Amino acid sequence: MTAPCSPHPFDTDTAFDTVAPGKFASNLSSGWNNNTGHPNGGYVLAVCLRSLLATVPMPHPRAVAASYVRSTESGPASIETDLVHTGRRVATAEGRLVQHGIERLRVIAQFGDLHNTGEPTLASDDPPDLPPPEHCVDLVAGAPIPLVTFTDNVEYRYPEMPGWRTGKPSGVTTSKFWTRFKEHRPADSLGLTCLVDAGAAPVMEIGAAGSATIALSVYLWREAGPEWLAYRAVTRHIIGGYHDEDVEIWDCDGRLLAEAHKFALIRPSPHPTKERGPTLEGQ
Amino acid sequence: MTAPCSPHPFDTDTAFDTVAPGKFASNLSSGWNNNTGHPNGGYVLAVCLRSLLATVPMPHPRAVAASYVRSTESGPASIETDLVHTGRRVATAEGRLVQHGIERLRVIAQFGDLHNTGEPTLASDDPPDLPPPEHCVDLVAGAPIPLVTFTDNVEYRYPEMPGWRTGKPSGVTTSKFWTRFKEHRPADSLGLTCLVDAGAAPVMEIGAAGSATIALSVYLWREAGPEWLAYRAVTRHIIGGYHDEDVEIWDCDGRLLAEAHKFALIRPSPHPTKERGPTLEGQ
Fold first, then answer.
1. Single pTM value for the model
2. How far does the CA of residue B113 sit from the closest CA of chain A (Å)?
3. Are B236 and A124 within 8 A, CB to CB?
4. How far apart are the C-alpha atoms of B249 and B179, rounded to whole Å?
5. Shortest distance, CA A112 to any CA of chain B (angstroms)
6. What residues have CB less than 8 Å from A94, skipping those under 6 apart?
7. Which of A66, A198, A211, B246 is the most buried (most CB within 10 A)?
8. SS3 call for B47
9. Taking every pair of C-alpha atoms in chain B, what is the biggest distance, in angstroms?
10. Structure ipTM
11. What is the distance between the alpha carbons of residues A7 and B216, in angstroms, rounded to a whole number?
12. Tens digit of pLDDT for each residue in B47-74?
């Protein structure tokens, strides 16, 4: 696995100081904002998990359940952790990320060891069918996305410019693209917990302004290096203003690295579109 | 929604006494055991959620994340709950189920209101294709499954007897059947959190003895009455002895009621099979 030459922003922006056993101080960077202008949920999760990794005697997160209680802002954050249980193969710990005395994120996660995972016994799903990254379009392509700073640190290559970006939502709640950290930072397990939340919500393809994640589960299967990763997100159900979302990240050899599942609230657009297919009218 | 004439075992077996604010006493019944001889995880989750429902000002669980820290046994259990946050539409609370002074299950969940949910804005997935229940076979059919008592309270109708039951695993890690509580108990949201974990693990179709759930997420979309419910579970990935599993429960009109996602550990069979397709050799 190739190590970057100097600390990547992801590493400096998730760093922490130990204040006391189970008490950590960190600082949420403004370099990982999504289109709400607030820090992206995956980045905030990684900040919390990094303190948790200092709490548990296992090297990697394996299953993570995050509850987004309130939105975060860039600036100081404290993280409190509790080791719940340590078994032979799995340790469980809980973390709470607090800003201005108010809890923002609660995480309970299982940790284990992803070294020497071996080949899958079963892999009955295929990675997304994508043209090579060099035949894809750069999502940013010189035109910053309003309020978004995440793209300063993470690259995206889409088969074609997505509808939400061109003002013509496709009506199809699937999103497929290549992604990677800039500057050749590897996609280790902590990085993957950030990247699973790095895609624009598929509900933006039916006219939503975005999505507010309420609950996020991440399962980690394997780490990867700095190469392009294939990302797929699908929303299958929208009911009463809430939606589900399933995410997978695969390496360029077609091996599953991580999967995630979300329960989230639609953020309606102030300017509903009149595209064909499902729309958010009535939400 | 039809109410049962007398309390159903599910209701008596999830009942609790309030000991103090946020402290509850319950008793895990031996009537909901799976094939390990221990209480089924979905039943234990429902016990914990029922105390949580007494803690939050919302009527229904919407998103539930359960961490199975240690196995449970039938007998007394205490539940401690904390209200994390109450918003306008969503409340978040945490529960810890303890037996003999040792934490067994930790749950963090979001609660809301499933009344007047309305029709889906998007439903891009179909319920499982199943023959009518009266053309299906009864999983139990007079022959109890060793150690399993769950089937005393919940009924199952399969298109054909599943391979794990006949000693001839199919090699296909998908499970589809009809299910319902016996005695016409409705599938309310609490009942659904039990039923999403009520199916034999699809990995039993490739020779596993069973599965030990480590992390379970449940999303609740709609409640149902006492009618037959269509259940589908799929395992797509098995890597290094762990597997994923996606579960859906649909009503008989084809409306999604609940979905669940699991990260779990394979329990290998002491007598591996030699069927075609993926097997657990090498686990």
1. 0.94
2. 10
3. yes
4. 9
5. 11
6. A52, A81, A82, A84, A106, A107, A108, A109, B106
7. A66
8. helix
9. 56
10. 0.94
11. 35
12. 999 999 999 999 999 999 999 999 999 9
